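Work through what follows:
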Amino acid sequence: MHIEIHPIPKENILDIMPLLKIVNTKTPHGLLEKRVLEMVNYQNYECIGLFLDKKLIGITGLWYSLRHYIGKSVEPDHVIIDKAYRGQNLGKQFFNWIYEYTKSKGCEAIELNTYTGNTKSHKFYYNEGFDIYGFHFLKVMRADKSFY
């Protein structure tokens, strides 16, 4: 079993779609592709892949920002590991890589969001030393008020 973790090149970014659609079930496929392409080409976003024997089995987006209360920070977004590979300590390895990689880019803190019903992720993040600092609120301002 050979594990590799590295940024996914922009030209291969749509390779993440099968994994991304595991948690993003409401956004129409074409719109999701369009958003991913805009994120990787025009935003402060980078996608990291977790590969097992060259097969993409995990992803996370990394959003970089400078915040007045903590300094340079990174937000892992949509951390997804294929269900067939969970429970094998891969999440821990993935996050250890993310810690070192983002520290090498000057990040001083990591912030993240997780869905309230995803209790397995809560346990994982507590075990990784994360604390709950606040709440994430969302207001959809589109006319249809739909979340997608």
Notes: DSSP finds four helices and five strands in the chain. The radius of gyration is 16 Å. The chain has one domain: 3-127. The first strand starts at residue 3 and ends at 7.
